[in-house]
Each structure stands twice: as structure tokens, then as C-alpha cells.
Amino acid sequence: MLTRSAILLLLALLGVSYAAVQTVSVVGRLTCNGRPYSGAKLKLYDDNTILPDTKLAQVNSDANGMFQLTGTSSNLVFSADPKFNIYHRCGMTVPVCQYKSSYKIPKQYVNSGSQSNNQFNAQTIELTLLKKDRDCIN
């Protein structure tokens, strides 16, 4: 009896997860010492607690420092927990590896379905002011 109940619960969860498509989008502009910063690598992730994070999108900032990331996730049970990472060399005296900064995206910007109707605007991010770590493998 317990096995049958477990199978039914699993099937119910799979049915819910199949329909649980969520989309998140973030836009912004990067500057280094007040000037547009082009070529920074940006990655959008679904920040998972137990499993490795799921990469949803990746772009480089353009000549004006602008970026836009949009990604879609299908979680089993939980809603998406989005974040984006910025990898750059702004202010680096010896360009070994890159700096990495992470930003959580508030849950209110996670959209149900495959369209992003509520985009997170990260505004202008001055890279010299960020809390950052070094990252040699990204």
C-alpha cells in the first residue's frame, strides 16, 4: 500500500513539474571607473540548494556596457531561485583569472510560463564598487 501511494505521489509531482515552466529576465549596464565596460561575461543561473546550479543563459556586455539575460527553468517542485554572475577584469592590475560577483534576483521577477513579462532592471552597476571573488574556471 505504501509503495502504491509513493508511486501516485511521484506521478502527481511529475505532472506538476512538467507544467512548472518559469522564466526570468534581467537587464542592466556595467561601468568600470564610470566608463561603459564591454566584454564582461554574464551568466544567469537557477541557484539550486542540493544539486549544482542550472545555467539558464550567458551573454557578454556590449560596447555600451549593456546586457540582457533571459532564461527558462523547469523545476520539479520548487520555484526558480535566480541569480546572475558577472565575470570581469575591471581594476585588475595583473589580469590573472577574473573577478566574479553574484546577484540574487528577487522572486517577484520570476514569471510563470515561457515569457518574461516582469523584467528585473539591475540599473547601472559600477564594477569597482562590487564585492568580488577571483574565479579562474568559469
TrEMBL record:
Gene Ontology CC, one term: extracellular region
Cited Pfam families: TTR-52
Residues in the signal sequence: 1-19
UniProt cross-references to Gene3D superfamilies, sorted A to Z: 2.60.40.3330
Swiss-Prot/TrEMBL keywords: Secreted, Signal
Localization: Secreted
Similarity section: Belongs to the nematode transthyretin-like family.
Name assigned to this protein: Uncharacterized protein
Organism: Mesorhabditis belari
